[in-house]
Structures are given as structure tokens and as C-alpha cells.
């Protein structure tokens, strides 16, 4: 490949980048993108419009031929160029829609590189959009989340973030904090002079207001995180209680073998499902009991490992028979973890001992333990209670049945951590103000809180943070 002179001279942020915007592999169409000051020049050199005599007009699609590195025609295609600054990246941009053959895409890309383009890094188009002030950092991150969203709800959360809802709310809180900081600094700078005294209590009240806004955003952040990153949910219990049957009911197909023979499931089985908007990895495991043979023993070992990895356990007991010591053995394994207790086979009369067992579990589970909550009664056979089980799982993952309209805007761990820290510092600033006299301390904390908001919005963030964020993107985004 020819080494381009343009590439050697320009700083990375100002050269022209190129990449396919569509995934590798065969498809009806593929799109190639260019962004940077030479987008039009390069486009002119790699694309020959059918009506060559006409000038290039921005935003007007043209039909023509892509021309390869050696001037050979590659593909009949459509091309458009868009003029800075009102483009996605804020730079001159060009797009070529060609036929979706990996060979055509590769050759067209080579032709662009020969003409002076550089292959884009992952996320570089979006990074430029951010650096050129087209989108905030939170919005840029939402682009990545949109592409990787696995459920409709996750997509909706990312879409709202892309629309700027989170940025707008955080900017408003930041403004409030900035106003307070300005007043405190004026007081500190001009304390000697004859200006109106600063009402610290009023300022502290307004900071409380900011903290509450942050709280409201954080209240749904766990839900947001789960919507984005999903959860691993593992069904456990002794043999024959109906774990595999419940697993099948939840995934909506007969995936795991279920038979009346205790010890049917020998290996862990996993399925990815959309559970009320949460991308969930659901795992069925071997029943826990003293193993009958080596294979079963290995299966039980795997089940125990799965218990440790789970975000949420579904501990299943059979309500129609008397619980036994194996059920207690399972309880010992799960007692300190998060989960839901499921009493299965509710289509059959409940054993007289089940109530006593549930009572003893509630007694033994510590204060605040998940196992103190009421169990869910289901019948995997008739599907009775499965809807309620799904609802309880969704609740456990962070918030009841709310649809995408609930304000689960904070889905990103980076944002959540910054908001937690901002809330702490706003609180500290408020306290310092109430103790009057400590205006300087309050100013330090307020500046810290504002810095956290800046970090989310992308004001004054360093390259290191940007590298970390944009490296998660795919090339061409
Ligand atoms: N009546 C009734 N039978 C059920 C129900 N759920 C499961 N069963 C039956 O209970 C037996 C065991 O079900 P499985 O789903 O294989 O139980 P498991 O916990 O996965 O068992 P192992 O894999 O052996 O540990 C099967 O005969 C199922 O048909 C239920 O809700 N009601
Ligand atoms: Mg099973």
C-alpha cells in the first residue's frame, strides 16, 4: 500500500479517516465512510460519477463507479459528500454505498488509503463528533450502547441518552452547582468589600436540591446497568424439584431435558433470553445431592461454581413433598447470596412440612437477607405463577415492571461512579456551608462535584479517558 504524504504530516485529529460502516461479510449493500478535510478530494479520486460534467453538490447522492487503486472500475455505486460543519463528525464527510462484497469493500478502502486517507481507529468517527462539539461524551457513549443493545429496553435507554436526555439533566444540575460556586467565590474574594452578605443556608438548600436531582438519576442506575450489561441467573436446588422445567418455562422452549428421574441434569445448560427487557443468561444446573457417580459429581461441582458466579439465584424446592436435608444443604450454599426462593409444583397439594421448612429458612436467614422475602409459588407444569416469577426477577434486577419510560438513564458504570462521587461532594459542600465560615472548604468540594459532572459531559477530559471509552467501539463508528 502506498504511503501517503498527507498521512505523514498531519496530526491525527486533522487527517482524513476511512472505514467501512457496515459489518464484514456479504450483504446486499455496504457503506464506506470518509471524514476529514480531504473527504471530497479523496472521493473525487476514487469515485467517477456517471454524469462527470456535473459539479459535486453537498448532500446530493450521485451514481457512478468506484475506481480501484490502479484506476480500474470496481463497482457501480452511489456516493454522497456532506460539507462541514453540519455533519455527524463536524468535518467534511463522504459515504459510498456499494455492493456488499467484502472484496469490493476492501479494494475501495485501499483506493481511499492510496488517495491519502488513514484507516480509522475504533470509534474514531464518534470521537471526532465529540471533539468537534457535535455530541457530548455521554451521547457518544450512547452510540456504542445502541449498537450493542441486546433488548428493546436497552436500546430505548441508549436512544434516550443519545437524544441527550442525560446530558441535559446533568448540565442543569451542574449549572446549579456553578451558580452556588460563583456566589461563594464572590464572597471569598470580596469579603472585605461592601457587597450583600452571602446567605449560606440558602446556598446549602440549593445544593440539597442538586443532590436530590443526582439521587433521582442514581435511583434507577442499577436497573440501567442491568438493562445494558444483563445478568446471570442460575437455577439451583436438589434433584427432581423442577429446575429444568422452570428453566424451560422461562426460556419458552424445551431446551433442558426434564424427566421423573432424579439426577437428570448432569451439566450446566445456558440460554440467553430477554426477560422483561433485561438481557439475561439463564443457567440450569445439576441437582445437588451426594453424587451417585463421577459424572454427577462433576456436574454438582459445576453447579456450585455457577452459584458463585450468579448475579441472582433461583433456588427451587418441590412444594408437594416434604423438604429433606438436601434442601437444607442447598440453603447452606446460597444463604449469603442474592436470590429468589421458588416453591414449584403448586398444581399438586402442598406438603404439610413445606410451611415449617419455609418458616425455618426465614428464621435462619439473617437480617436483610433475600431469603426472608416471600417465596414465589409456581407450577412449571401448568405455567401458573411463571408471569409473577418473571416480575419478581425483574424487580430483583432493579425496579419493578417499569417500561423504558422509567428514568433508567444512567446505565453506564462510569457515569454512576461519577454521580456517586458528585453527590458525596455536594453533600459535604452543603455541610460546610451550614457550619458557615467554611466557605473555602465548600468551594473545594463544589469544584470537585462540578469536575465529576464535566467528566460525564466530556468537558476537559483527558485523552486517556477518551481512549478507554472509544476503544470499546467498533471500527467505522
Ligand atoms: N406436577 C408437577 N410436576 C412437575 C413440575 N415441574 C416439574 N415437574 C416434574 O418433576 C420431574 C422433575 O423435573 P425436572 O425439571 O427434570 O427437575 P430437575 O430439578 O431439573 O431435576 P434434576 O435435573 O434431576 O435435578 C419431572 O417429571 C417433571 O415433569 C410441576 O410444576 N408440577
Ligand atoms: Mg434438571
Main sheet summary = 7 strands, mixed
Helix content estimate: 40-55%
How many domains? The number is 3
**For the record, what is the CATH homologous superfamily label of the largest domain?**
P-loop containing nucleotide triphosphate hydrolases
CATH topology of the largest domain: the name is: Rossmann fold
Strand order of the largest sheet: 3-4-5-6-2-1-7
CATH class of the largest domain: Alpha Beta
CATH architecture field of the largest domain: 3-Layer(aba) Sandwich
Give unreliable regions as ranges: 1-9, 400-406
Number of helices: 17
Indicate the proportion of strand residues. 15-25%
Structural class by secondary-structure content: alpha/beta
SSE string = HEEHEEEEHEHHHHHHEHEEHEHEHEHHHH
Average pLDDT across residues?
Answer: 89
Ions and ligands: guanosine-5'-triphosphate, magnesium ion
Give the termini distance in whole angstroms: 24 Å
Please give the number of β-strands: 13
- Supply Rg: 30 Å
Cα shape: flat
Amino acid at each position: 500500500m502506498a504511503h501517503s504524504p498527507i498521512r505523514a504530516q498531519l496530526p491525527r485529529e486533522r487527517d482524513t479517516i476511512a472505514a467501512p460502516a457496515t459489518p464484514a461479510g456479504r450483504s446486499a449493500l455496504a457503506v464506506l465512510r470518509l471524514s476529514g478535510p480531504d473527504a471530497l478530494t479523496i472521493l473525487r479520486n476514487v469515485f467517477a460519477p456517471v454524469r462527470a460534467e456535473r459539479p459535486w453538490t453537498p448532500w446530493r447522492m450521485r451514481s457512478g463507479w468506484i475506481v480501484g487503486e490502479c484506476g480500474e472500475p470496481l463497482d457501480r455505486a452511489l456516493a454522497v459528500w456532506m460539507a462541514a460543519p453540519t455533519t455527524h463528525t463536524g468535518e467534511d464527510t463522504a459515504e459510498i454505498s456499494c455492493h456488499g462484497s467484502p472484496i469490493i469493500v476492501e479494494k475501495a478502502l485501499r483506493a481511499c488509503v492510496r488517495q491519502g486517507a488513514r484507516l480509522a481507529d475504533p470509534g474514531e468517527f464518534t470521537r471526532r463528533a465529540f471533539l468537534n462539539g457535535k455530541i457530548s461524551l455521554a451521547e457518544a457513549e450512547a452510540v456504542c450502547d445502541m449498537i450493542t443493545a441486546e433488548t428493546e429496553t436497552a436500546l430505548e435507554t441508549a436512544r434516550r441518552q443519545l437524544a441527550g436526555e442525560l446530558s441535559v439533566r446533568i448540565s442543569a444540575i451542574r449549572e446549579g452547582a456553578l451558580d452556588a460556586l460563583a456566589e461563594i467565590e464572590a464572597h471569598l474574594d470580596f469579603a472585605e468589600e461592601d457587597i450583600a452578605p452571602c446567605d449560606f443556608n440558602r446556598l446549602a438548600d440549593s445544593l440539597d436540591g442538586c443532590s436530590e436531582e443526582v439521587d433521582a438519576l442514581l435511583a434507577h442506575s442499577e436497573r440501567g446497568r442491568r438493562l445494558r450489561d444483563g445478568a446471570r441467573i442460575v437455577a439451583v436446588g436438589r434433584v427432581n424439584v423442577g429446575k429444568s422445567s422452570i428453566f424451560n418455562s422461562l426460556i419458552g422452549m424445551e431446551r433442558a431435558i426434564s424427566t421423573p428421574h432424579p439426577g437428570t441434569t448432569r451439566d450446566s445448560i445456558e440460554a440467553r433470553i430477554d426477560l422483561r427487557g433485561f438481557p439475561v443468561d439463564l443457567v440450569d444446573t445439576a441437582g445437588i445431592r451426594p453424587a451417585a457417580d463421577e459424572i454427577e459429581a462433576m456436574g454438582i461441582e459445576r453447579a456450585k461454581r455457577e452459584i458463585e458466579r450468579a448475579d441472582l439465584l433461583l433456588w427451587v424446592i418441590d412444594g408437594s413433598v416434604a423438604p429433606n436435608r438436601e434442601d437444607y444443604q442447598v440453603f447452606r450454599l446460597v444463604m449469603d447470596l442474592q436470590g429468589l426462593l421458588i416453591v414449584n409444583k403448586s398444581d399438586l397439594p402442598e406438603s404439610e412440612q413445606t410451611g415449617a421448612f419455609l418458616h425455618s429458612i426465614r428464621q435462619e436467614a439473617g437480617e436483610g437477607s433475600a431469603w426472608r422475602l416471600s417465596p414465589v409459588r409456581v407450577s412449571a407444569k401448568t405455567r401458573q405463577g411463571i408471569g409473577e416469577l418473571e416480575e419478581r426477577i425483574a424487580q430483583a434486577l432493579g425496579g419493578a415492571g417499569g417500561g423504558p419510560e422509567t428514568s433508567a438513564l444512567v446505565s453506564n458504570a462510569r457515569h454512576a461512579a461519577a454521580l456517586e462521587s458528585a453527590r458525596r461532594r455536594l453533600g459535604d459542600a452543603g455541610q460546610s456551608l451550614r457550619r458557615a465560615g467554611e466557605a473555602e472548604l465548600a468551594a473545594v468540594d463544589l469544584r470537585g462535584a462540578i469536575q465529576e459532572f464535566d467528566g460525564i459531559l466530556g468537558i476537559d477530559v483527558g485523552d486517556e479517558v477518551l481512549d478507554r471509552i472509544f476503544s470499546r467501539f467498533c471500527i467505522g463508528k
